[in-house]
Amino acid sequence: MTVAITGEEVVGTLDKKLKGAVKSVESEGILIQAEKILDIALCVKNNKNLKLDYLVSITGTDYIDYLEVAYLFYSLDNNKRFTLKVRLENKSNPAMPSLTGIWIGAELQEREIYDLFGITFSGHPNMKRIFLWEGFRGHPLRKDFSNGN
Amino acid sequence: MAIKTEPILLNLGPIHPSTHGVFRMRALVDGEVITDIEPVFGYLHRGIEKLAEQKSYRQFIPLTDRLDYVASMNNNLAYVTAVEKLAGIEVPERAEYIRVIMSEIQRIISHLLGIGSFFNDMGTFFTPFFYMFIQKEKLTDLLEMVSGQRLLFNYMRFGGVSHDLPDEFLPALNTFLKEMPAEIDKYERLLKENEIVLARSKKVGILSPDMAINSSASGPVLRASGIEWDIRKADPYSIYDRFDFDIPTGTVGDCYDRYRVRVEELRQSIRILEQAVAGIPKGKVLNPVPLRFRPPEGEVYSHIESNKGELGFHVISDGSDKPYRLHIRAPSLLNLTALRKMLTGWKIADAIIIFGSIDICVGEVDR
Amino acid sequence: MPELITVGAAISPNLPWSDWQFGFWIHLLIFGIGIISLLLGSVIIFIWLERRLVGRFQRRLGPNRAGPLGLLQSVADVIKILTKEDIVPSRADKLIFWIAPIVAFTPVVLMLAVVPVADGALLADLNIGILFVIAISSITALGVFMAGWASYNKYSILSAMRTVAQLVSYEMPLILSMVGVVIIAGSLSLNDIVKTQTVPFIVLQPAGFFIFFIASLAEINRTPFDLLEADSELVAGYNIEYSGMKFATFYLTEYCEAIVLSTLAATIFLGGWQGPWLPPIVWLLLKIGIVFCFIVWIRSTLPRLRIDQVMGFAWKFLLPLAILNIFVTSIFVALWPETPAWLMGLTNLAILVAYILFWSKLFKPGGKAVAV
Fold this sequence. Notes:
heterotrimer; B: 367 residues; alpha+beta; Cytochrome-c3 Hydrogenase, chain B; three-stranded antiparallel sheet; 8 strands; 12% strand; globular; C: 372 residues; mainly alpha; 64% helix
């Protein structure tokens, strides 16, 4: 069975500066600040006990006050899973660092989130829309998207 | 004195006999060699994730059929197990067995189609394709017996399946299972050691294990690169932990390995089917759930091993009768992440074969 | 120097009209019309044969609606093609676009001028028959390239270049395999070659037949060498932009080439019109049918090779084998002219088998990625 690694266990492996970036701890993941995503992700990937080397999926959600991006990782050798969540308060121009430097698998999923939510990922090699055509105005999966666009 | 050459921009698709659907690749070609390739997505984007937010949970089940349209039962299963996990719904024993039988039959159908198209791209003028279609037709007839449909079944429900198996189903399935291994051997005799097949697909389009993990590949593509990761063994859902089967893996990660992994998975599916048919109990097939039922607030990610890879549904519920957010982790889209690395440096003829060996379905890529 | 051809002397003396006043022109008329009608008529039959045979290989019926047993299917297809609109791309080179199908089709019909249907019954009994066939058959490649170039389409040009490369490379083994037969028969004229075959030359020259058959598969763009019209790659190759009657001409060319090369194989290696009881032309048609069925069998079974594998196969595998074949045959003919047929055939077969086993260890038709 794929068991979830608890948030406390992962927080215990981070060093001091990164511990400050953790905003809240849950049973299956942690909520962190957007700017530190690269460092924390690298940390959990390289950690010998955690070895979370497989990025499964990136989900974007529009809670009306903020946008949330959830990253799900597996460790194939240990058969464990873990979630990292990030909240972006600035809905007019949300931006955060991209994980494509570490995982190539993030490339298409981040383009999808840009296309459907409007979050730009800095450092992405090809930040353009993936499913909708160039010149489409608006980001459909937001709750305030109206069809007249 | 070197001849001055100029690369030309070639468009493979979207309307092309062998891009497996509406998919476009823009390739920069220098002579015959592809120097750069860029896939273009979105020709089949239907906004299924947005539609999910406007339909009730039960109304969304037919839409899941249309994701990977050759794996309709598996899509149903993934969505239904996700919502059952969220709401804590129990499924009767007989329904679990029926679900496993349908899922494995669907896997056989999809792999036969995938292997047939792979050889079609290679130039055997439809002959292996037709041979495999004869077996596929028998399975499609079985599924039509159960659900009335040949392609998009809409068969699973929350708490079980919608109809019980008719009486003719299990004897017909048994006949099929007895004759299928001999048929697979028949295909192997012509194609497994064929010199031309080996020349076209061995060492072509290699995906190394590190690249496979890094690019989030899953399913036969990941297993052909040597990584033993199958969700039916690693995180068993439904009743897969009761069955005894192996996970075939490849060694090198080239097109030939991907083809071999799919053929071996056919044999393993037959094993699972034999055990399931032998052990199926009697009983009811559905624990009914209200038509517009409201699952409790919360979020869940549930995954199954679909025929293309790991199909996951991330469902976020806010207590109402419509999902708040439903995200589909599509295996075909993530298997395509490494497409650029796999195709550059090869010739156009190889590009078609490598692309065919990944075996995507555009309905899932674009949703 | 003996004259290669003189008008009037090209008709063999044992035909009924050889010594009439306008005998030459009557001969030309009868045989000209006869060849063209026989060829075009047999194309209809052979298209039907191919489609039914491929259907049987794939465990299905094949065309069975148009007429009894689907015999009128080709007629229906021809009527359909004749009524299609003939579109010429606006930026295509109009003159070459128009001429290309004709340049591709005519040499194929001309090749039948030197094939005998009975003793002495051929359009022109040239004593350089095989040389004529070889020379004319190369013109088709020119027509194909003209078609690809004049279409002004990236796909056509790519495909036309591949085609010309393949056609030119496979002419070498084709020609050299025929040289072995010429050495044994002692003459270039096809009539003499058929008459010399008391034992069909396939027995004496199995390696020659092997090379001839494979090289002719490549010349007529058939699987496993049909990457030029691979509709799973560059969507129909050099005749992408053709429609209507011009496309029908290219389609016709492909089938006529298949029939003509089967005819050559039947004439040179299988004994032409010779055979007991039945009239000679029936024997010839039977042998053509058998070779054609082999071609269809290979088409429905094997996958196709890539272009660099195709070229490697021609130059590195078939060409040395053809040269070896000529060498061994000339040794036999020059030093031991009275060898019994079976000894010569057995040696040839042994050399073929040894070559295949030994050379295929060294030569692998795989390809690698090019570093970009």
